[in-house]
Amino acid sequence: MSQDARKAAALIEERAPGRSPKIGLVLGSGLGGLGDQVEDAISFSFAELPGFPEPTVEGHAGRLILGTLAGVQVACLQGRVHLYEGHHANSVQPLIRTLKLLGCETLVLTNAAGALDLDAKPGQLMLITDHINGQGTSPLLGKNDDSFGPRFPAMTGAYSKALQERIKAVATTQGVTLREGTYIALLGPTFETPAEIRMCQAMGANAVGMSTVPEVIVARHCGMECAAVSVLTNMGAGLSDEELSHDQTLEFANKASATLQELIKGFIGTFT
Ligand code: HPA
User: Fold this and answer.
1) What is the pTM of this model?
2) How many domains are contained in the chain?
């Protein structure tokens, strides 16, 4: 498993010599458009990279793109894998560790999520300040690869305070409303029941989704700094009269994507 990341990084370095991405990006449902804005792009389909699982969800392309965004070298995962697709939790290891081996010290993630705060509005963005792993599994199950990180990695400060301040400053400059809060990842693929939404609220979560937490766990294990933003595509089940659907998720993710893309580009631009 850990050999996959080494093989993938070696293959990428051979086919894209001289690239040294500093920031890794993981783009969620309907938010992959940022990958298309990468300049001077060299792209690899997940299928050609050892150990990279093929995403099966509509709106998730499955490409790793190397190039420049806002003047900074990035490595962008356009399309991600979710546990509900049937992948083993460990299957996110090669994706994130490949970014680390390519030189990325920072990981920026986006996702679509359901809002749990009653004053939230679909289409708003939320900066993730902490998470709850509600998936009942971990991407670090099994023998630990000490060359990437320790057996028992700390998850305090999983979302870097310094990066949070940086992104909030960009949001203020751009006039973007950026909510803040804790993201809880559940397994999916069902949307939650209203009772589960009440459970998430009682646990102190502000948004609920089905991704991001595994990637952040793997990234923190190997020492990457993380920043993540959710697009709140809907109110959690039972909090509004709307019927929940993936189409609605994609519709609101697409509507908010221009704002989110500008925010992320502005943030990345502070690394020049
Ligand atoms: N629940 C879980 N995942 C989601 C939701 C939701 O309401 N909206 C978008 N992704």
Assistant:
1) 0.95
2) 1
